[in-house]
Amino acid sequence: MSESCNSRHFSWLMKSCLPNPSDAKSLVPIHHHANPPATVTPISSLPDDLLLECLSRVPSSSIPSLTAVCRRWSRLLLSPYFLHLRRRLGLLRHSLFAISAVDSGLFAAVLQPQSEIPSWRVSLAVCNDGGQGSLSHARAAAIGPRVYVVSRNAVLRYDSWTGTVAVRSPMIFPRKKFAIAVVSGKIYVAGGGGGSEVTAAVEEYDPERNRWEVVTHAARKRYGCIGAAVDGVFYVIGGLKIGNETSVTSRGTAAHAPNLFEHHHMLVQDATMH
Known about the structure:
Elements: H1 7-17, H2 48-55, H3 63-66, H4 71-77, H5 80-88, E1 96-102, E2 105-111, E3 121-126, E4 139-143, E5 146-150, E6 155-159, E7 164-168, E8 179-183, E9 186-190, E10 193-194, E11 197-198, E12 201-206, E13 211-217, E14 221-223, E15 226-230, E16 233-237, E17 240-242, E18 248-250, E19 253-257, E20 267-271
Antiparallel strand pairs: 1-2, 2-3, 4-5, 5-6, 6-7, 8-9, 9-12, 10-11, 12-13, 14-17, 15-16, 16-19, 17-18, 19-20
């Protein structure tokens, strides 16, 4: 067998490897089917429960900006279930507020005990609504991140997330030295009075409707009392208990349970403090 290369054989081999131009039309084209793009679901289209699961994991520093996205997000962030999820995830930070009223708004000092170096931070929240009225003999009540400062003839709402102040509707009966507490997201006041008149009306404030209404009347009038809420019961503690003849009888405790009866028929009890 010859070991030399034949150029004619090489030439034939090269030609056999090259495609025939006349056969180009007979080639079957290969189509590459591109996968359709995946459908992106915006977070705003999620149902409330799934959206809350997402929002509850947001860092605390970003929550104030989320409340301004839309009314739906603001409503969900202010719901009790949002606080429940934050508490379950260990992301709920308790804060202590000290509030002082000035002509232009409120001075708010906040202390967060969970911080590495607990310290008071003071800020001025200016009231842009104007006409805040007098805040003498005021009481405070908190619903979620909002603190309501309730006085005889004025109510201010301080938003601890945004640092803003808004004027809200005043009580129906101007009063001072009254009891106040929060039950099921609503504010209840009882006792107290203005001038020589002491009222027995128990008022309820609905923050969503910004409206006060009388829900019941206490069996006896009280003045100089304080309030507390436990397990859906509004307790009016201490103060001067005044009978029907407006004579001072004793100090005691009255309990009001707003959620026991329909149509605002509330249980009113008198108990002597020991």
